[in-house]
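User: Fold this; tokens only.

Assistant: Input:
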Amino acid sequence: QVQLVESGGGLVQPGGSLRLSCAASGIIFSNCVMGWYRQAPGKQRELVAAITSRGTTNYADSVKGRFTMSRDNAENTVYLQMNSLKPEDTAVYYCNAFYLGLIYWGQGTQVTVSS
């Protein structure tokens, strides 16, 4: 079955960096559009970044210039490099895959930005 497993979350001070990883299995990864979403307490889940099978990326305005999404098709993994983190980036971050017309989600990883 399809599995997405996120890792790399944690507590970081404002201005710091984190790198999230999402390892995929059970899919032909190179054919997938992959995304990172986040959900803060009391808010709706929102798209942070997405990457096509060819590596084209797009980002939410709130993270442009600070976050970078990439993929390694040999490792079936996507990454989200997060720099210059702000308290408002605090959320649970979810990995998402669009594959054969269906959407799959990981379990999420907590990112907390606080001094």
